[in-house]
């Protein structure tokens, strides 16, 4: 093995080990002394937390499927008014943080809100006892808000699956007497099951790990239990036990989804060179399809964004420009560093995998991607345990050599926040770079080696220039995800350090989101960039 290959191997395994240490730290700390606090939680509220989490996941996945699959089917197969615009507009709700949507809808639906006020004015009612109105500050309200934000996961994957299906299958079903609805349930939906299952698992993991909306709506889940146990009881070991339980649940969810379709194989793809034009709906079906897609887009994105714009315009004179500029700089600074570090990690593990001649070459990339499945609150626990232990060890060594104690210079600074971002979002960079590298033919590598190019020259002169677009996308995606991350940021940020996400959430928690509306709009606009890129990529792949 050449010196360069040895360097890549050592670096890849070392980086993957460092990225998985926070996960190991959670399970290690869960065996610590916490019987009193954890036992008290188990005998009192843990059952409620667990049931609420299960109901939140089931309700959010069900509503997301109900919103996402019909929209995906209509966009993939039928021509309706504005469908060319709607096919990517239905993805935009992913850019809306859930706690912002929750604040706005709660403001609209509360007793003093405009909807109930207008209803009382129309009907002549004078008190809440005279009528019933849905309450969003409930578990069902949290499911509704989360599904509005998360259904695009299912919509994107299901739409891609429907577009890839062979036209001959649905045509054969129609010739055999199936109606369009029967053809959908018997042919199209079963073939799209793997994509729907993956989308549902993503929705489930996001629902398990959400802290913003469940905290705002006062719904007690395992995520809020981790937060309360850490900050309320000041017991990190008990919080680690709950975090370990959540990680096991997430692992079971992912494993169950994969096991359920272990024998399912799909060999038929849409290989027809000429795509048949979309079906033009008529009459009531056309009206229902148009209303379904447009109302969903308005409820999930356009209406909340319009309210934010109204807040920003109305309260711009009372908003702090200095705070906005400072917290924007904080977010940009931390996110940019995280993007660069994640890019280095992604390049290292992927290049080692490409140059490795053994099956073990793929292990560092897979291990380094484990953090993406961890909820931000759980990840914050792991990072804090790992960095605090490192701080104490370094301080003990420094004191032993007469340098004095250095303090919590890892866990008590911005380094902890950067670590969380890198551990969580390195998987995004790894995936983007891996996708670009797979498109570079191995013949380029072989030709370079035949012409006498060493490993370093081949990487710098052949591979990096060919994957520079993938590297740019990787950095951009990690940057944007870090800008939006709330769960880890709210727990690991240093004193007197706010990001845009924590700044907006603090105002939303205090029922004053209107004063941070400009920051919320910036968060939404930043989140739109990867969604537009993903949709353009999807359109090009099916062009």
Plain-language structure description:
There is one protein chain. With 543 residues, this protein is mainly α. The protein has helices at residues 3-29, 35-44, 46-77, 83-89, 98-109, 114-123, 139-164, 167-175, 180-191, 193-209, 212-216, 222-231, 236-260, 283-314, 321-355, 363-368, 376-400, 414-438, 442-450, 455-466, 468-484, 487-492, 500-509, 517-541; strands at 78-79, 279-280. It has a two-stranded parallel ribbon with strand order 1-2. Helix 23 packs across helix 24. The two termini are 44 Å apart.
What labels describe this entry?
single chain, 543 residues, mainly alpha, 2 strands, globular
Shape: globular
Into which percentage range does the β-strand content fall?
Answer: under 5%
Biggest sheet layout: 2 strands, parallel
CA gyration radius, whole angstroms: 25 Å
Strand order of the largest sheet: 1-2
**What's the order of the H and E elements?**
HHHEHHHHHHHHHHEHHHHHHHHHHH
Query: Number of helical runs?
Result: 24
Give the termini distance in whole angstroms. Answer: 44 Å
Mean pLDDT: 83
Beta strands, count: 2
Structural class: mainly alpha
- Given as residue ranges, the uncertain stretches (5+ residues, pLDDT < 50) are 271-275
Q: Helicity range of the residues?
A: over 70%
